[in-house]
Amino acid sequence: MRVNFEDLPLDRGVRIVQGKTLYIPVELWHNGAPVNLTDCTVTFTLVDDAGDAVVGPSPVTPHEPLDGKFIVRAESSSTDDWLPGDYAYEVEVTFPAGSTLFIGGAVIAVLRGAVTVVPTILVDEE
Question: Torsion angle, CA of 1/98/90/23, rounded to 10 degrees?
Answer without folding.
Answer: 40
